[in-house]
Structure formats: structure tokens, C-alpha cells
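User: I'm putting together a small comparison set for a docking exercise, and I want a reference complex before I start. The sequence is below, and the ligand is adenosine-5'-triphosphate. Could you produce the 3D structure with the ligand included, as C-alpha cells?
Assistant: Of course. I'll restate your input first, then give the C-alpha cells for the complex.
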Amino acid sequence: MTNQTSSTHGPSSEAPLIVEMRGIVKKFPGVLANDHVNFELKRGEIHGLLGENGAGKSTLMNVLAGLYRQEAGTILVNGEPKVFSSPRDAINAGIGMVHQHFMLVPSQTVTENILLGLDDPRFFLRLPDYDTKIAELGERFGLKVDPRAKVWQLSVGEQQRVEILKMLYRGVNVLIMDEPTAVLAPQEIEGLFVTLRAMIAQGKSVIFISHKLQEVSVIADRVSVLRRGVATASGIASKGVSRQELARLMVGRDVIFSLDKKPSQPGEVVLDVRDIYAENDKGLPALRGISLNVRAGEIVGVAGVAGNGQSELSQVISGMRECKQGHVTLAGDTVSNRTTLFGIQHGMAYVPEDRTHVGSAPNLSITDNVIMKKYRTAPILKRGLLDMKAATSLANELKQAYDIIVPNVSTPVRLLSGGNLQRVILAREISGLPAFMVAVQPTRGLDVGAIEGVHRLLLAQREAGAAVLLVSEELEELLSLSDRVYVIYEGRIMGEVKVGGGEPDESLIDTIGQMMTGTPLEQIQKEGVAAHD
Amino acid sequence: MDFTIILQAGIASGTVLLFATIGELFSERAGVLNLGVEGMMLIGAMSAFSTTIATGNPWLGVLVAMFFAGLISQIHAFIVITLQADQVVSGLSLTFLGAGISLVLGEGLSKAGTVSLLPSFSIPLLTLIPIIGKIFFTNQSVLVYVGYLLVPLAWYYINHTRPGLHLRAVGEYPSAADALGINVFRMRYFYVFIGGMLAGLAGATISLAVSPGWFSELTTGGQGWIAIGLVIFAQWDPIRAAFGAYAFGALRRLILDIQGPLVLFGFNNPFYYNPYLGFFLQMLPYLFTVIVLVIGSREAMRKRIGAPAALGNPYIRGERGK
Ligand SMILES: Nc1ncnc2c1ncn2[C@@H]1O[C@H](COP(=O)(O)OP(=O)(O)OP(=O)(O)O)[C@@H](O)[C@H]1O
Ligand SMILES: [Mg+2]
């Protein structure tokens, strides 16, 4: 066995298998989430697991981590068959998982969270001893985090490190990471990769679930792909395959990465935001004098690192947050500090960041969710009552038109995959023929196929003459969809740039990057001029 | 009026609240709200008193009280943990059930005469400390001293031991605890049982020490509800709970005693001459409880004062979209 560590070389082909899953079958009511899936993990490799939303990636890994019990199939660890009836069994066999949603107790310290459920300490906690131990372990794997800090004080990236430490502390040899980069800022992703490589160097193995093809080709040695519960590729070397091929394996058809975007023909100003101030949930200033506008028939992007006021901005616009100063007008009518209904009646559509609680009512059916903005008028409202027949047929129409994959429209939306849920929300918002739409992180956590679909819908809105404000942390997405991009930093607009069609050029990306870290556009331009002199 | 005597009696009376409050605190820390404290206290007071009458052994009375109150708490545990029903509704029914059972079984107990009580004594040396010694360490029931020990032990247990860590995790984020192999259901049953036992002990403290006898539902007189209010007031911390319990015990005594003398501080005592003022005073602890409960039931406020995050929610394994 070689000691190769870098992901470009990977473990030698004769590295022993540490995990083998054979013929795994897992069903949920009405869904065959895993259909005789085979999966192999070699010692010392980073194995990428790709697949669309709802392909069954999390399910397969939850089986391996002991959270779900498979209906058929066997799991071998180091060649020995194992039966896991709880996550604890899996951990004892050396397999640990970091879930999509972190499982940390916010009110407890990092050390307390890590010690949870262990037999040592036996009775008295004596935390300081363990604090040092954990700090040392963190050091070894490049996971910097203060063991005495309470979890609620930590950033998302730090919390993820605690989750990884929790597993390393339990001595796992196989770490499963379920979409670890979905919640991270670009710099944090780099840090995570450093940690993963350190783990490989120390003889551990990693399963890395992701939607982002590019990431997988950077970090993974080998790749497996699931589509609708079936493995369409098992352990192919990541070097040899192109993004196109991977996408085809995931989606089952060709995915078009470049969108055909017609030149923009902006019309009247639809949304006008004038010098607004607002506070965040903690009562601290979040927006400090933001002005921007969106015209009919254009997509305007808002770029920025997470937490710089994007959420608050979209909430003030949609009427969900108080505007302390300034105002927002929609086609001339002031909508800020009015009811959300007022905004809706004036053509506002809102695709919020939090799909599951703000964007939809998780326990209600697709039908109930799609009529939420329409139940006040005919045909849904009939003689003062809801006409459920009309509602169901509307839902079925939208299901067809927006490609919502689900057995029937009475399914509660909490059971939908991320991509399908987003389609339900978009279907509701777009079918109201809005004059203006604000979409926040509309593709977060979605797979390539679903992202393509959402992008198409947004562009169709633009072509139909609607004004669209797109808030996103994905620069690539902003550059490919937007006509103009504003950059937000600490509640202020750092500048506005025009985005032409075609390939975005380096200097534009560089300018936006500088604005995202707090340099106003004017200053960049001045320095640029100075440099040329 | 000698205030040290009032305070001395107040500590004894506060011990009742203390046991009930700490018991409820354990249950809530595990995520289970149990509004049946009043009912469990009545069961405890009744069974302690009748056992002692029958056997002449007050210690046996205490044990039986804790056992039966613990047992009846398990009805609530079964309904809310296993059947996952609403904790408020089940807790309220437990109050009625406990009151009903103890009134029926306690019928006639009030005329049963006197019983041998738990011993009272002073602590040598400590009793010599000025004022404090008189209030805390002179001629108090053994249960009062048990209360002094319980507070630091409960605090240390919750914050500095492994089972305490697990208890906090189960009340804050049960699925995280479950994923690490902690048996959430068993833990919740256990701490509801602890809560029941301590409520039973609180009841026994009334009927065998603080105001001996059985006076049907007036025996507890709503102190179970005050205990529930005190848990919120204490922000789920045993030390603060002790302060609250003793302060309320003292207040209760003061309210009773202030209505006695004809002359107060050289004036005609208004509380003696105007009984309505007395009634008003007696209402105050309950008014406090109502206010605390109203405040504590507001989600945002609960978060700010540090309520266990999973308090009141049943734990359902592997539920999606939560
Ligand atoms: N606990 C559950 N109950 C019912 N259905 C479930 C459950 N968990 C998953 N499913 C269904 O099983 C299928 C596979 O889901 P899974 O979460 O494994 O997908 P995934 O590949 O991880 O998708 P994503 O990228 O959205 O995380 C989906 O159709 C999903 O709706
Ligand atoms: Mg998943």
C-alpha cells in the first residue's frame, strides 16, 4: 500500500476495501430510495458520492451510519459482515457521519458536545482535562475551534468542525460527510479540504456527498453516482471523467451548462429601493442605507458573503421585516412597512431562503401550498368557500407544467426533495404572473438538473417582462443569469457592475471579489487608474 | 413580631416548595413539562400521613409518599413520552387525578388524630452564628436539612456530571442525544419519575413536618402551581430555585403572621382590622405564579431565559422535516 496522500494521486488501486455495501435496498412509503445499490470504499481515499435531489444518497449513507436499517443487502467492514442497529454500532465499527443538519446541542460547550454519550468520563465531568485533549486532536487535523466555546456562539463552519471532531474523537476510520460544503463560505471550503486531506494522510477514509461537480473533481479520488435509487457509476476515477459525463450519469440526460440568454431590453423601473435601514433579529443594524432598483425585463443580482444583510434586504422588500428608514416602491406604490398582502396584490413574488418554513407549510399538501396566494379569488374561491376540486386541478396543472415529481398532489410537501419543493414554491410564485420577484438562494442545495430548471424559470420570467432580484452567494450563478450585479457588504452597497453575455472576464470577478470583502467600487477604480499611471 | 422566627418558619415552609420545584426542574430539563405537581404533592401528603398513622413510622411514610407520587407520575410519562400526547393536557389531568385519588383515599384522615412527626433538631456550632444560625440551623425538621443538601447536589449533578450532561442534551436536542446512543425515552421516564418522587417528598414534608395533618386539598393549597412558576423564575437553575423557594416560603409565613397582631410597628395593624387586605396579600403568590406562567409560555421569552429547547415536544425518532 502506498502512502500517497494528495487527491490527485489517491490510494493505489490495490488499497484494501474498508467498506463494502452489497445490494442495499431501502424503501420508504411510496419510494424506493435505494434499489440494490453496491458501494465500495477503499482505505485512504476520498470517495465522492453524487446524485440528484432525492437520488438516495443520504439514505444510503444513513444505512451505513446505522441510522436506518436496510430491507435487503449486506454491509462489510474490513471484510466482515456487520449489522448496525444504531449509530452507536456503526461508530464502534469505525464509521461516523456528519449530517446535513448538524446535531449539536447549542447551549453546551464544544467539549460537552463531543463527550456526549461516551463512557469516559465515567461520572464527574472534569472538563478542563478534556478541553486540552480536544484542542490537541483539533490541532492534528487542522480543525481550529475553542473547546470551551458554547456551540451557539460558533459560526456554521466552526460547528461543522465540531461535528468532525466528534467523530474523530470516537476514533472513526471512515467519515461520511453529507453535503458539507452547502453551508460553507469559499474560504471555509478550502479549510475543510485541508482537513480532509490531513485525515487521508493519517490513514482515514472519507465519503463526500455533494451536488457540486467541480468540488467533487477537485477533492475526490473516486466517484460513485446514484440516480433515483440506482447506482449509475461505482468508484470511477475522478480524474478521467468530465463534468458533462458526471452530470449525465446523475440526471440521465445531457445538462446544458451554458444558458441561452437573450440580450436584455430593460423597461421601466419596477422595484425602487431608496436608502433603507433595518435591523436584524438581534436588534443590531443590518441594512445601513441601501439603494437599488430593478427594471422590467432584467435580472439584477445581489452578491455578497453570507450574513451581510442579504436576508434582511429581501425581507424588507417582501414586507416581512420592518424598515426603519427609507422606503421601497413597487411600480410607484410604497410597499415597505405595509402588509405582505399589499405587496402580493401589487405583483410581488417572493422565493425565500428558508424553503421549509417560510416558503412552504411543511405539513400541508402540494395543493394547499400552491393555492396560498390564490385562495382569495375565483376560481379557488367559490361563494365564499374553497373549491377544492378547482384547487386540485390547478395543483395538477402546475405539477405537469413545473415537472414536480411526486405520486400525487395531496402529498405533504415536507416529504419532497429540495429540488421538488423549490419547484412547488416557484410554481406558486410564478403562476401568479408577478411584476416583480425576489429570489433568495433559489438553488442552494439543489443538484445540477434542478439548478438548470430553476435557472430556466428565472430567465423565462425575465423574458416575460418581469423584474427579478436574485440574491445569491454563488458568483457563477449571478454572473450567468444577471444583467447587473450589486455587491453588498455589512449592510451597504459597495458598487454596481454590468454583466455582459458570454464568459465573465477575470477582472470583473476580481472587482466583485474585492467589493465582497469591503472595498467600495470607487476606491477600486481609483486605485486601478493610479496603477495605470 | 420577631422576624427571625417568621423567617425560621419560612425556611421550613419553603422546603416544601424547594422539593417540588427541584423535582419539576429535573423533569423539565429532560424536556417534559409536568403540570401535575399539585396532584402528585397531594398523593404524597395523603400517603405519607396515612402510612404514618397506620405504622407509627414517619420515615416509612416519607418513602411510601415518594414511591406513590413517583408511580403516578409515570402515567404522565407514558402518555406524553410513549403516546406522544400533549404535555399540558396530560399534566392537567394528572393534577385532577392526583387530587381525586387523594381526596377519596384521604376521606376521614383529617379526624384521624395526631401522628409521630419527623424529628427536628439544631445543628451544633452552626446554630451559634448570629441571625443565620437562628433562621437556618435551629430546631428545623430533618427534611429542611435534606433540602440544604439537595440544592448543591442537584446543581453539581446537572452541570458537572456525565448523567447531568446527558440530561441537558435530552432536554435541548433529543435527536442529537439519540444519535450518540443516549436512550431518550428511558431518560425522560426516569426524570419524570424523579420529579414525581420529589413532589411526593414535598407533600410528605407538609403533612409530616411543616403543617402536620391532612386537610384535603387545602393541605397543598396550590403550592404545586407555585413550584411550576418558580422553575421558570429560576431559569431552570437549582440554586436560583432555592432562593425562590425560600423567599416564597418566607413570604407565605409573613402573610399569615402579619395578620395576627393588633399593633404593627406602633400603628393599628391594617391587616388585622381589614380582612380583605389579608385576602389580597394571600393572593399575591398565586398572582406571581400566573404572571410567570404567562410570561414563560411565550416562545420568544422562553428562549431568552434559557428554557430547555425541546421542552414540551414529544420526541419522535427519525422524523423528517423537523
Ligand atoms: N424518512 C423518510 N421518510 C419518507 N421518505 C423519505 C425519508 N427519507 C428519505 N425519503 C425519500 O427517499 C428518497 C431519497 O431521499 P434522500 O434524502 O436519500 O435523497 P438525497 O439523495 O440525499 O437528496 P438531497 O440531495 O436532496 O439530500 C426521496 O424520495 C425522499 O423523499
Ligand atoms: Mg441528502
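The longest strand of chain A covers residues 17-28. Chain A has three domains: 17-251, 269-347+435-532, 358-433.
User: Thanks, that's exactly what I needed.
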